[in-house]
Amino acid sequence: MIDSLRTARILVVGAGALGGVIAARLRASGRPVWIATRDAKTAATLRATGLHVSGVGGTLAVEVTEVAPLDAYQESDTFDVVVLATKAQEAMRVAPRLVRMLGSDGVLLPIQNGDVAQALAERVGSSQILGGLSNLGATMKEPGTYEQRNAGHLLIGELSGADTGRCERVREAMSGGVEVRVTANIRGAVWSKLLLNCSVTTIGAVAGRTMREYIALPLGRRLFDLAYDEALTVALAAGVHPQRMLVDPIPPGWSGRSVPGEAREAWLREILAFYGDVKPSMLQDFERGRPTEIDFINGHVADLGRTKGISTPANAAIVETVRAISRGELHPDPSLLGRTLDRFGGT
Question: pTM for this structure?
């Protein structure tokens, strides 16, 4: 049991946009926070500059001394809460070690896109892993300098859906710094976000456009409908009950495929109101030469679809296009919408 919620030892792993904002907000609220970076250079930079956050939620600047590359931490450095804010691939790599750094009542909280928490639970055991996702919008201008783009929050829950009290303790331990909400259906919430990642984020990255720009193109709209319908079909077949987030995850009149009509258009306008003009995070990955999380987004849908005997050609084609862009064989462009559809005769 965490003796004092206000003095719970919190480790934030990853000092990118989300990790940086979360660590800074927690530190400014007086919480004891440690930061684990990818390398010693980044750790040295943060120690020298501190953390600076602007934008929604107010401007702040805090000094940080408890920061080091992850490899410098020992298993004896026990923590009550470990917020895993790296890319999904890195989360899978470092999680087994982080679990060994948890106190007896400690929890590991992954907040990546995709069903990462469930994958980690199946790999290292679920007893100390909570499910989580982030609705925080943030950008990193340079190491230590961040802009918060919305008044978002973290959503957490037990993967089993049980009420163990752990989520409430984590919420209280992080309160004052970051808003944390608790749900009994975290997997449904994760999949609701995944449905949009599979369509809004990845298709925008392939086209090199915002959702508002690519959805206005007939081929962009068709690829969106196909990718979303496939992902929703797989989620339901896996026994997931997608939870309403920004919109109802099940479109009006849906019966295995998109049903044209005004109700569908109104549903789509709701999504556009939130995501229509946002630059896709995966497109930023392309521009910065960083690995994408495609295997944990559309790739996860395609993999799970195969185990359920469900065909997911649109999602599989998106995966191949994204991989080709990552290899430098293609470049984001609206012409890739048709090329992606052509991979499976979807035009």
Answer: 0.89
